[in-house]
Specification:
Layout lengths: L2 H16 L16 E9 L4 E12 L2 E10 L4 E11 L1 E12 L7 E6 L4 E5 L5 E5 L11 H5 L9 E7 L5 E17 L2 E13 L2 H6 L10 E6 L5 E8 L6 E7 L7
Antiparallel strand pairs: 1-2, 1-14, 2-3, 3-4, 4-5, 5-6, 6-7, 7-8, 9-10, 10-11, 11-12, 12-13, 13-14
């Protein structure tokens, strides 16, 4: 690489590091309540990899949201998120576990959004404590709820996110409406908004990553908009560098029917 190019990259990296990318929390337009839904994880070719539950419970003024995915190879993806919804959505805590053959880099990370304390449990029993100054818009575990409250006319929404790396770091995600996509329910035609979620790494990593093909692929989340929004499906990698999988809601099936 030419010396000029190296200097340019360093300049851009410095600019990215010093830039103020903070954003405001998402306003509450549709309060979340008690709910229970069923989901599956599939490859883009339709092979089922896991089944799971999406639940929400109201407790003491907070909402406890949990997504548990049981993979057919014995792997587990389990995330429990606690948040408040007083005028705006605010993360209280998030605990995310990934383990088993489907996850080459297992994680067990807890985030206390109020104190900024981040605790990681390694497979060998080692416990690591980190601290980050977390902004009020940090969004771990919240994207589906937030997307149901973002106006589809909003050109872009930016949020903060703690990347669960060996050394946790704060990144930013950009959410943009990608257009309506038709789907059917029992033969009835509906439309969902396809939200494109882009991870902005920032800093030197963010400058170099696209040049070496390491920039994370965008996520797509389909939300039924309107007076009573609903999560329809999601496509993206569940871990850093992982394949793109699809998570979508399913209905129960009864034997003999």
């Amino acid at each position: 690489m030419h010396d000029l190019s190296v200097r340019l990259l360093l300049f851009l990296a410095t600019a990215c590091i010093s830039a103020n990318l903070s954003a405001d929390p998402v306003p509450v337009r549709h309060q979340q309540g008690s709910a229970h839904g069923f989901v599956v994880v599939k490859t883009l070719q339709g092979t089922i990899l896991a089944e799971g539950d999406m639940t929400e419970v109201l407790h003491g003024g907070h909402v406890i949201s949990r997504l548990t995915l049981h993979f057919r190879d014995g792997s587990l993806d389990d995330e429990t998120t606690v948040f408040s919804q007083r005028k705006v959505f605010r993360l209280i805590s998030d605990h995310h576990i990934q383990q088993g053959p489907s996850f080459p880099k297992p994680i067990d990370i807890s985030i206390d959004a109020l104190s900024g304390q981040i605790t990681s449990h390694a497979q060998d029993g080692k416990i690591t404590h980190d601290h980050l100054d977390l902004p009020p818009d940090v969004s771990n575990g919240l994207p589906p709820n937030l997307l149901m409250n973002i106006l589809p006319t909003a050109a872009e929404t930016k949020l903060s996110y703690v990347a669960p790396l060996a050394k946790p770091r704060l990144v930013h995600i950009s959410i943009k409406p990608g257009g309506e996509v038709p789907f059917t329910v029992g033969g009835t035609k509906r439309k969902a908004m396809d939200y494109v979620v882009h991870v902005e790494l920032g800093g030197l990593t963010g400058v170099i990553a696209p040049l070496i093909g390491k920039e994370p692929a965008d996520y797509h989340v389909w939300i039924l908009t309107g007076a009573s929004p609903a999560f329809i499906r999601e496509e993206g990698a569940l871990y850093e560098g992982g394949p793109v999988w699809r998570i979508e809601q399913v209905s129960p099936e009864f034997a003999g029917n």
